[in-house]
Amino acid sequence: MILRILGSVSPYPKADNNCVGYFIYDTNNNQKILLDCGNGITRLMKFPSDLENLTIIISHLHKDHYADLSAIAYASYVYHNLGLLNSKVKVYIPNSKDLEDYHYLTNYGTENYMDFYEYDEKTELNINGINVSFCQTQHNIKTFAMNVIKENVKISYSADTGFDENISTFFQNADILICESSFLKHQKNGNINHLSAEEAGILAKKSNTRKLILSHFWPEIDKSNYLNEAESVFENVEVAIENKEYIL
Ligand SMILES: [Zn+2]
Ligand SMILES: [Zn+2]
After folding, report:
1. Rounded to the nearest whole angstrom, what is the distance from the C-alpha of residue 85 to the centroid of ligand 2?
2. For residues 88 and 165, what is the distance between their CA atoms, to the nearest angstrom?
């Protein structure tokens, strides 16, 4: 599997940085999974090939995690009409009927050549041999962390979350943990919905993860600040950089 970083910042894209999105490509069966779909990530996707056999999983319905779905829906529609796309894009979103965003998205309509499905904590997806499971995080709307597992490779993704030691059990022994790192610790100021870089490092250590990739940065702050803070508690850490690939 190849993991490609498509985005690394929130709440808005800036220069070479997009809002969050992580593209997983299983080269053996031409299967693609996109974890979150933030503003600007389509700039780094290869169309139409990345749309074929594509499953998108949205962690929660904050716009920095789904805004580019509209671009993918339109692209999917056009490439289908041109006869260059054979499969519909599948999109999994949390069961969140209480949110306006849920109704906005699911009313996109079939002309967009995109199908929506719901998931919750009990859902276990098997996407052509790739297993995806979910764990609800501590955030201000319903949000899910994810494990993507194929054979003995495990990629974990925190989505947006406050500090909760229990979630480290879910991430246990991940080969890669992509973890949000919204704050530097001096900025956190009691916020319970996001992590500092240091806390991301603590979770990586507790979960015995092999490599930590920090992401979800403030666009105006140099990424090296987050890296330095996490490195004080966890050794094998990198910052998410757009277009960087990891082969697993
Ligand atoms: Zn959020
Ligand atoms: Zn976010």
Report:
1. 30
2. 38
